[in-house]
Every structure is written in C-alpha cells, then in structure tokens.
C-alpha cells in the first residue's frame, strides 16, 4: 500500500505558509523545498509586499535554497546549481506558472508536488507542458495533494477582495466563493499512467481518470488537515518561526488552531465533507479578537479535535 502521509505532511507546511500569506493580504500561494526530509527553503507570494510581479513563491524559495547551499559550502554557481537541486522536491500549493516551471527546469529540480491546478497560468499540464518540454531538465509533476484545501485558501482570498460579496455562512458553507469545486486534476496532462502509479500507487489507479475523488494519505481513508500537520516539524522550520518574531501579537498556536478549522475534511470515499463547520477569512479577525471562542469547541488541544473513526470512514470533528 502506498502511504502518501509524508507528502501530505510536507504539503501541509506549504499550506500553512499560504494561510499566513492570506492573513497578510498576499495571494495565498506558498511552497517549501525539501531535501532528504529537511525543509531547506520556504516561499510565499510576495508580489504585493515587494511590488515585484515576479516574486512568486517559487522564486523566494529558490533564492533561499541558493543561500542555504552557499552557507553549507556547496557550490551554487553556474552548472553546479543543476546538481545541487537533484534531490530537492518542491511542494507548492498551486501548480507552478509557466515562468516558474521554466525556472525549475533550469535549476534541475528533482520533482514537483502540487495541490491544485493553476487554471489560468499553469506551466505544467493545464496549459503547456513546460515541465516536460523545452530547455533544461524535465521533471515529474504530481498534483492533487491537499487540492481542495489549496483552492479554499484562494477562494477565501477572493471573497476578502470582493467587498460586494455576501458574507459566507460558517455552517455548511458549501461553496465559499459561490462556486462548486472544479473537477479533480486531469493527471494525464502531467504524467503518463506508469509514472502516476509509481508515485500514487496501484491502489489509486482508478483516480488517474477520476473527476470527483480526491487523493488521500491512505487509500480509502479520509483525513483532515488537523491530523496531517505536524506541529513539531512546523515549529522546527526557522523561516516559519521568523514570521512570528516580527509580530509578537500573533501566536503560532492560535494560527494553527484557526488554520486547522479552515478546511473541510475529506471522507473515506475521497469526497468533501461539507457538513463540517469551517472558518472563513471573515472569521479570522474576529478570532484574533477572541470572539470566535463559542464557534470552536475548546477540547484540548483544539487544533487536533478532528479525528477519523476507527474504520477510517467518517471524519468526526
Ligand atoms: C496589498 O497589501 C495592502 C496593504 O497590506 C492591502 O490593503 C491590499 O489588500 C493587498 N492587495 C493585494 C492584491 O494583495
Ligand atoms: C501572486 O500574486 C499576484 C498578485 O495577486 C498574482 O498575479 C500571481 O498570479 C500570484 N502568483 C501565484 C504563483 O499565485
Ligand atoms: C524582482 O524579482 C526578480 C526575480 O526574483 C529579480 O530578478 C528582480 O531584480 C526584482 N526586481 C526588482 C525591481 O526588485
Ligand atoms: C543525491 O542523492 C544521491 C543518492 O543518495 C547522492 O549520491 C547524491 O550525492 C545526492 N546529490 C546531492 C546534490 O546531494
Ligand atoms: C463579487 O461578488 C458579487 C456577489 O456575489 C459577484 O456578483 C461578483 O461577480 C463578484 N466580483 C468578483 C470580481 O468576483
Ligand atoms: C485541472 C485541469 O487539468 N484542467 C484543464 C487541463 O487542461 C485541459 C485542456 O486545456 C482542460 O480541459 C482542463 O480543464
């Protein structure tokens, strides 16, 4: 059985960074670079803060990785860069855009794991297969890891931007932006069936051409983000800790609790459980003002209150 728990766990760190970006009015897209299970760099969309349209999450992370290689006396200039990224995997919440996909080929990245497709600016499968064709080294691109969660953050961003949009209901908020979720990733646009099976496993073979089921960490078992994110690992990433050094008023624990309640769980059958109460961006500031306490059951610890039943069927929150 192919256990994708580590892929989900890594992606949940990128998702947390995207959530942090949302809290600071940036487009909620973020990524981490992982080498041998170690997070060597992080990035989130800084186009607003830096007023630089090319400061996509991937570029932030690549710059950090180059500094990391240099600090560790690894050669990070010219041709050698291609070797340095040979064991590095990018986890990014949204499929890299055409510009980023091209840069990733040039640095010789090992592979990309992404959440949702980039419908407008997709560089891999959605619009152009940049990851497979063109100059540089081709890499494999595996999507659908925390896909609906990545979309939920983007939708929260758009409703926040749209002041004429109605305030969404917290309960049974089926479609945050007034839309249903787009169909699952069209995997054949990214990888062939053999490569698909080598990553996702034989048990997930039907998902290659499935429109309505999400990838889950274990086949035929549901999950929720609260169960996936590893708080210890999150806290061990210095770049994430640094985000809190500048803002003493916000705490990582509080953000983690809000974060864990922002997403619908995925059931055993791979479909979204819309019955769970979730928080949306309109609730975040209220929560920061301690007005959300009644909305959240304060079981200990409250960001872990989402649990699978023993048969892995329904997710109880
Ligand atoms: C950019 O940042 C400003 C100031 O934080 C914020 O008011 C605005 O909504 C942000 N816009 C976008 C598109 O990120
Ligand atoms: C970053 O944010 C800008 C401005 O909102 C947007 O145009 C761009 O597509 C975003 N980049 C990614 C990778 O989402
Ligand atoms: C914007 O970002 C790009 C890529 O990271 C960088 O090469 C460029 O110098 C930046 N431009 C400005 C005006 O800072
Ligand atoms: C990548 O991993 C292989 C196998 O473990 C190792 O031989 C190689 O030196 C690694 N490359 C880099 C750049 O770390
Ligand atoms: C803003 O919300 C309104 C009401 O839901 C909707 O009709 C409109 O299309 C939205 N605008 C944008 C730019 O999404
Ligand atoms: C998610 C996804 O794969 N979306 C699109 C991929 O590209 C094809 C062809 O352009 C579209 O039909 C899909 O909707």
From TrEMBL:
Keyword match Chloroplast: no
Keywords associated with the record: Hydrolase, Metal-binding, Signal, Zinc
Domain CMP/dCMP-type deaminase per the UniProt entry, residue ranges: 9-126
Gene Ontology molecular functions: tRNA-specific adenosine-34 deaminase activity; zinc ion binding
CDD domains reported in the protein's UniProt record: nucleoside_deaminase
Coiled coil start-end: none
A Gene Ontology BP annotation from the UniProt entry: tRNA wobble adenosine to inosine editing
Keyword Zinc annotated: yes
Entry-linked Pfam families: dCMP_cyt_deam_1 (PF00383)
One GO cellular component term: nucleus
Family annotation (InterPro entries): APOBEC/CMP_deaminase_Zn-bd, CMP_dCMP_dom, Cytidine_deaminase-like
Signal peptide bounds: 1-31
PANTHER family in the cross-refs: CYTOSINE DEAMINASE FAMILY MEMBER (PTHR11079), TRNA-SPECIFIC ADENOSINE DEAMINASE 2 (PTHR11079:SF149)
The name this protein goes by in its record: Piso0_001912 protein
Organism: Pichia sorbitophila (strain ATCC MYA-4447 / BCRC 22081 / CBS 7064 / NBRC 10061 / NRRL Y-12695) (Hybrid yeast)
Organism taxonomic ancestry: Eukaryota, Fungi, Dikarya, Ascomycota, Saccharomycotina
Record gene name: Piso0_001912
């Amino acid at each position: 059985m192919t256990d994708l728990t580590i892929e989900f766990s890594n992606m949940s760190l990128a998702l947390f960074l995207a959530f942090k970006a949302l809290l600071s009015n940036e487009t909620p897209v973020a990524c981490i670079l992982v080498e041998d299970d170690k997070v060597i760099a992080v990035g989130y969309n800084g186009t607003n803060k830096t007023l630089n349209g090319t400061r996509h999450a991937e570029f932030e992370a690549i710059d950090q990785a180059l500094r990391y290689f240099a600090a560790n006396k690894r050669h990070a200039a010219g041709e050698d860069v291609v070797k340095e990224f040979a064991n590095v995997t990018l986890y990014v919440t949204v499929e890299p855009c055409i510009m980023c996909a091209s840069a990733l080929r040039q640095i010789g990245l090992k592979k990309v794991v992404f959440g949702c497709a980039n419908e407008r600016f997709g560089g891999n499968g959605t619009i152009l297969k940049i990851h497979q064709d063109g100059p540089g080294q081709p890499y494999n691109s595996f999507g659908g890891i925390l896909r609906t969660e990545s979309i939920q953050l983007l939708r929260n961003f758009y409703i926040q931007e749209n002041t004429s949009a109605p305030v969404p209901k917290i309960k049974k908020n089926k479609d945050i932006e007034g839309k249903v979720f787009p169909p699952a990733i069209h995997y054949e646009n990214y990888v062939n069936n053999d490569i698909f099976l080598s990553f996702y496993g034989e048990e997930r073979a039907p998902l290659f051409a499935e429109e309505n089921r999400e990838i889950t960490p274990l086949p035929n078992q549901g999950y929720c983000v609260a169960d996936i994110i590893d708080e210890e690992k999150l806290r061990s990433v210095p770049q994430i800790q640094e985000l809190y050094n500048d803002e003493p008023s916000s705490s990582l624990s509080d953000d983690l609790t809000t974060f864990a309640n922002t997403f619908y769980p995925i059931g055993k059958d791979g479909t979204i459980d819309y019955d769970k109460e979730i928080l949306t961006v309109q609730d975040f500031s209220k929560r920061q003002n301690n007005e959300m306490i009644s909305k959240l059951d304060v079981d200990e610890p409250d960001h872990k209150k989402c649990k699978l039943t023993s048969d892995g069927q329904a997710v109880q929150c």
